[in-house]
Write a structure and sequence with these properties.
single chain, 2,3-Dihydroxybiphenyl 1,2-Dioxygenase, domain 1, 2 domains, five-stranded mixed sheet, four-stranded mixed sheet, 3 helices, 20% helix, 33% strand, Glyas_Bleomycin-R_OHBP_Dase, Glyoxy/Ble-like_N, Glyoxalase-like domain protein, VOC_core
């Protein structure tokens, strides 16, 4: 079996969160989806598990951080700069927050950060490895 990552995120409203991620281009895997959780697929290797707060609490007794806090920033590579921009626009259109952090353009790398409905931060980035500085 190839290496995969399943990012688990607590969400307040499962159906709204599923719609948000679908708007960004994630696909739902119904095999791992029920009324308490949804598996949203970015690629063959990257999956996001959206878990209701009750389901989340079956995995840990640690408190769910408030929407205004930040615990982790998850970075996803994009094919080009236009896709980075498009995903931020889609996030804002579907209830998230675009540019929750300042956008960064280093020439060889371009990124913008968005927040989903529950405040989870995603860094969408594009990088041209051939243009990356050598020092």
């Amino acid at each position: 079996m190839s290496k995969m990552i399943f990012v688990n995120l607590p969400v307040a409203d499962l159906k709204s969160s599923m719609a948000f991620y679908e708007a960004l281009g994630f696909e739902n895997n119904p095999r791992f989806t029920d009324e308490t959780a949804a598996c949203m697929v970015w690629s063959e290797a990257i999956h996001v598990m959206l878990l209701t707060h009750d389901k989340w609490r079956t995995f840990t007794s640690r408190p769910i951080p408030p929407k205004s806090s930040s615990e982790v920033m998850l970075a996803l590579s994009c094919d080009d700069r236009a896709t980075v921009d498009k995903l931020n626009e889609l996030a804002a259109t579907h209830g998230g927050i675009a540019d929750i952090n300042p956008k960064q353009d280093l020439g060889f790398m371009y990124n913008r950060n968005l927040a989903d409905l529950d405040g989870h931060i995603w860094e969408m980035f594009w990088m041209d490895m051939s243009a990356m500085p050598t020092e």
